[in-house]
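pinned: reference chain
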Amino acid sequence: MTRTNKFTYTLVRLPSTVLHELLHALMVIIFTFTDILFNILRSAFGIKKKEVCRIENFNIFPNFKEGTLGSVSYIFSSGFQDIFINIAPIFSLIILFVYLDYFGYIVVDFHSKKLIEIPDYNFKLVDIFTPFIAYYLLSASLLSKRDLSNMLKGLLKVDTLMKLAILSSFIYLIVRYNLDSNANIVDYLKELFGIIIDGLFEIIDFIRANV
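pinned: its C-alpha cells
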C-alpha cells in the first residue's frame, strides 16, 4: 500500500476509528469509577483494595506495522472488565438503532411480535447523511483480532463466568419484568435465584470436566 493510499484509507476510516477507540476508553472510565466506588466499600469492611482499572494510553493514529488504526491500552483490569472493554465498540450498533428509530426509519414496539416495523417512507433532509452515518457506525462496531483475543482471555477466567451468569440473569429478568404487564416481583426474584444457582452448578460441572 502506497503512502497516498494509506493516508486516504486512514482519513476515510478516521470517524469510525475515533468512535471505536472512544467506546473502548469510555468503558475503561466507567470501570475506573466502579473500582473506586467498590474500593470505598472494601475499605469500610476492611477488605483489601483492588488496583483501579485505568487508561494507560489513547491513540487514534494508525500503526501499519502492527495493523492498527488506533488503540487504547489500560491496566489493572479483571477478566470481567476485559470482556466489556473489548466488546465496547459493539455499542455503536445501539447508537445506530436509536438513530434509525429517532428519525423514523424504523418503529420499535417491544410489545409487538414483529418488534421492528418499517413505516412508509417520506424524504427528509437527514436522509442525505444517513448512509454515511450508518457506514461509520457499522464500521466502528467491528472488533479487531486484538479485541477478540483479549475478550476470550477474560472470558476463560472462572470468576468471570460466575459474574456473567449473575449479570445475564439480572438482565433477562429485568427485560421480562418490563415486558410482562402481570409481573410479580417476588416470583421474578425466586426465578432469578434459581437461574443463578443453576448457572453456578453448570460452571462447576464445566470446571470438573475440563480441569
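why pinned: The first strand starts at residue 54 and ends at 59. Helices lie at 3-44, 79-87, 92-102, 130-141, 145-155, 158-179, 185-210.
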